[in-house]
Structure formats: structure tokens, C-alpha cells
Amino acid sequence: MNAPHDPAALADPLVIAGRAYRSRLLVGTGKYRDFAETRDAIVASGAEIVTVAIRRTNIGQTAGEASLVDAVPPSEFTYLPNSAGCYTADEAVRTLKLGRELLDGHALCKLEVLGDARSLYPNVRETLVAAEKLVADGFHVMVYTSDDPIVARELEAIGCVAIMPLASLIGSGMGIVNPWNLRLILEHARVPVLVDAGVGTASDATIAMELGCAGVLMNTAIAKAREPVRMARAMKLAVESGREAFLAGRMPRKLYEATPSSPAAGLI
């Protein structure tokens, strides 16, 4: 299921760090009932990139315990190790270096430095520090951040390969609460912008894609749905339809339309 390296091999690919992916939906691997349900939902979602919390998920660092790599092997999916649960730059850097070691030098990572244990809102100062260290060390950094367009611009200037602003708080399911800031980020970004956090249902994912986001990352919206596998399929379709609508270009918004959609001339 891993995608081809050559972006030219696909029509309208998502390109991250020079690699092309068919799916614009990225999914997490936590909060499921078991690894079997994790795999079923990921397969149903069509996702090729799966994010893994190094501090919470066993991918080989704990011998004798069930490992995610058995249910969701890296030979089939692109792993995106993340620093979820880290509250300082140093913590995040250490965690992602561990992930790289466990995954045989895998450079792609998701940087996440939290500032508040209750809301899980990002600490942007520590995020900027960690991003500089990781990029200098050869990581391809996809970065979770606030929806501040200035911070997004700074992270891109550091060398992050994708900017991932929250739509709303992690796990809230509140959807996109500030589309205007997302538009500002999208207007200036030269790297992919993916909504990360806050998606609750399929329409939220569609709206993110219609705004022009390159993709959507989600976990709780699928894992905590009443039927996770069915929701995973819904999210796949939502991302695809939102992307098609964005490329098609919506009609202008008007208070009313004086010209009828059916011809008025030549009627008997």
C-alpha cells in the first residue's frame, strides 16, 4: 500500500518531502479497541500514512508485548512517528530520535509539543525550537501547530515539510472553528497544509479540503465513532469529495440570482 516515490506517477498526488501519496487522509493508530480494529479502520480509510505516538504505542521498544508493526506493518504503510505527550522541545527531539532508531533511520516525523495538559494546545515557542533542531539533524518534519499564520510561516522558513494547524482542540470534534486563519495560512504556504486535530465527522473533513488544505489528519473522529470502520470509510469519501470540489471551483455566493436556471425565452 506504500505510494510510489515519483509524483509524476500519480494524478493529483499529495507530495510530502518529495514522495507521492494517493490518499490525502492521514490517520492515527491510537484509541482503538485493539490492533485488529486499528488495522480494519486504517484499511477502510485508504490512508497510506499512519501516525504513531512513540511514547504510547509499542513498535518494538517493549519486548514481549503486542506490537503495532505486526498489525500495521511499515512495509504496507508509511509510518509517521510523533511526539505526542511531550511538553518541551528537548523531550520531543529525544522521542523522535527514538522513533527514527526504532524505524531504521526513518526521517519523516510529526512534531508535536504541547503547552497545556487539559486542552492539548500546542506550545509554539517550544515547537519552533524543536523544529530547528530536528531539521538540522536531517528529519523531514511535519509539524502540529496553532492556526497562527505568522507561526506557520516561521515553521516553513525553518524547513518543515508540512504545516499542520489545528482546526479545533485535539479530540474535541468541534470541526473548523476559524476558517479565516486557515485561509491566511493557505494563502502564503509553499508546503502542504493539512488540518490536524478537531475533526469530528465527515463534513468537517470535506470543509477542510474545500478550503484548499492538502490533506487531513485525524484519529479520535474515527477511533471513537460508534462504528470506527464505517466512519473510516466515510472520512475517505469526505476527503476525496472535498478535494474534487476544491479543484472544480464552487459557484460564487450570491444573495439571489436574477437569471433563472431554466431558459425563459421561447416558451409557449
Mean pLDDT equals 92
Please indicate the percent range of residues in DSSP E strands (runs of 2 or more).
15-25%
The largest sheet is: 5 strands, parallel
Helix content: 25-40%
Helix/sheet category: alpha/beta
The whole-angstrom Rg is 19 Å
Brief overview, please?
The protein is α/β, with parallel strands linked by helices and about 270 residues long. It has helices spanning about 35-45, 70, 90-100, 125-135, 150-160, 180-190, 200-210, 220-225, 230-250; strands spanning about 15, 20, 25-30, 50-55, 80, 110, 140-145, 160-165, 195, 215-220.
Can you put this structure into words, describing what you see?
A hairpin with a 2-residue loop joins strand 1 (14-16) and strand 2 (19-21). Helix 3 crosses helix 4 and helix 4 packs parallel to helix 5. The chain has nine helices and ten strands. The model has no long low-confidence stretch (mean pLDDT 92). The strands form three sheets. Strands 5-4-3-10-9 form a five-stranded parallel sheet. The chain has a three-stranded parallel sheet with strand order 6-7-8. It starts with 13 loop residues before the first strand and ends in a 20-residue tail after the last helix. 36% of the residues lie in helices and 15% in strands. With 268 residues, the chain is an alpha/beta fold.
